[in-house]
Design a protein that fits this description.
The chain has 7 helices and 13 strands. 31% of the residues are buried. An 8-stranded mixed β-sheet has the order 8-7-9-10-6-11-12-13, with helices on both faces. By secondary structure, the chain is an alpha/beta fold.
């Protein structure tokens, strides 16, 4: 393999190893092996490890200890009655900032009130709505300034995976999307949501199991 030599001033390339004079820029002693050029001409450096690799900022979602990052997408999936909405409500109640909970499938009625009573949820800053469009939820986010948004459920809405990612990234919020499953136990509909999500949690018989995470191992799980 022929080694290439390059001028550190004008980037002119040569194949002659003992070239001392650059014919392009008329400079002496500027030609080095191309592989060494960046290291040598950049000069000696001192770089701290924190400048080379940024550790992702994460937070733990109580009461389950599920780790997530800013502007992330979390998918909770399982059959009806498996504990998805209960878990989402507990997370919303424990979250330290404002929360918008879009109760699309259940609505705002006796069923929701019974769940809040059973879980003893009566905190300020937890807002329930029935908006099923991106624009409607986005308006509520602008008004209430939450750090966490719950969409319950995606199956009953018109949200796509791209819509949820846009909400999370554009508004810098954590989005929890609740999804039903097929008879095989897989997330219903397109698999793009479970693929795009940063964290996926499966639910069955009031137990949860972490199945995907970009922030921790998959050892998490337990009772809802």
């Amino acid at each position: 393999m022929v080694q290439t030599f390059q001028c550190g001033v004008c980037n002119a390339k040569y194949n002659v190893p003992d070239q001392k004079f650059c014919r392009e820029c008329q400079e002496f002693d500027t030609i080095l092996p191309q592989a060494d050029r960046h290291r040598v001409w950049q000069g000696e450096q001192v770089v701290e490890a924190t400048d080379l690799y940024k550790v992702p900022q994460t937070e733990s979602l109580a009461p389950y200890g599920i780790r997530t990052g800013p502007a992330s997408l979390i998918c909770l999936y399982g059959p009806p009655g498996s504990g998805k909405s209960t878990a989402a409500t507990k997370i919303a109640d424990s979250y330290p900032g404002n929360v918008v909970y879009s109760s699309i499938e259940e609505g705002i009625g006796e069923s929701l009130m019974a769940r809040l009573k059973r879980l003893e949820v009566h905190r300020k800053g937890l807002w329930f709505c029935t908006h099923m469009t991106v624009g409607g939820v986005d308006d509520i986010i602008v008004e209430k300034e939450p750090g966490l948004v719950v969409i319950d459920s995606i199956t009953a809405s018109v949200f796509t995976s791209d819509d949820l990612l846009s909400l999370a990234h554009d508004r810098k919020v954590i989005v929890i999307a609740i999804l039903q499953v097929t008879k095989a136990g897989d997330p219903a509909g397109s698999n793009s949501l479970s693929h795009d999500a940063d964290v996926c949690v499966s639910f069955l018989d009031l137990h949860w199991q972490l199945t995907k995470s970009r922030f921790q191992g998959r050892e998490g799980g337990g009772e809802v």
